[in-house]
Design goal:
Largest sheet: 6 strands, mixed
Shape: globular
Helix content: 25-40%
Mean pLDDT: 90
Radius of gyration: 18 Å
Structural class: alpha/beta
Strand order of the largest sheet: 6-7-8-3-9-10
CATH architecture of the domain at 4-90 and 164-244: 3-Layer(aba) Sandwich
Number of helices: 10
Number of strands: 10
CATH superfamily of the domain at 4-90 and 164-244: P-loop containing nucleotide triphosphate hydrolases
CATH topology of the domain at 4-90 and 164-244: Rossmann fold
Low-confidence stretches: 110-115
CATH class of the domain at 4-90 and 164-244: Alpha Beta
Amino acid sequence: MALLEVEGVFQVFGTLTALGGVDFTVEASRFHGLVGPNGSGKSTLMKCIAGAIAPPTEGRIRFDGVDITDARPDERARAGLSIKFQITSVLQALSVYDNVLLALQAREGIGALLRSRTRGLLHKRVMAALERFRLVARADNLAGALSHGEQQWLEIAMALAPEPKLVLLDEPTAGMSLEERRVTGELLAPIREHCALVIVEHDLDFIRGICDVLTVLDQGKVVSTGTVSEIQNDPKVQEVYLTRV
């Protein structure tokens, strides 16, 4: 059974049809790339899956066998769905450590938070997340003092710290240097052991290097889905990139 199933999803805003009947499936422990020209609906689809916008105008979304079409974002998060948006949103006035801690505390019950016992219990998980993304030495620094690339890594660490079943990454390497992009690919590779990934990225070399499957969107519709090799040789995809990009 697929981990994520998007069936016949339409997302209409007034006279604009942002998604026009999208079918999209993600298997467990797979890295799935979502590509396409600007305005093709990639970020809208990610937000629709995460519940960051109004429920779809039409269609259904199932996660881990449960219908989440109308579920609140916090319900989706507790079910094991996590997202990093395109624009970095770390809390710059807090330490790097506290940013990850808050990401973990958001999954805790109100009772544990009121008793103020979560910091000690979550310390090992915070440090493990920082170590995974090479931020241990910056743990006590303010997040705002990090470089752009390090802030991106921090936000990915925050998305992964709660150990989700599926994480959605919207342009995680935007603004990074070539070396930072290479390192990002290395840092993400081990998570496939316990977590699936959907990634929107304009750097096609980066996405080809880490993804098992690619889905191409254009004008709110799926053009093609397949392996990297299949997508590269698909005439429909070549036409989209020749005429739209």
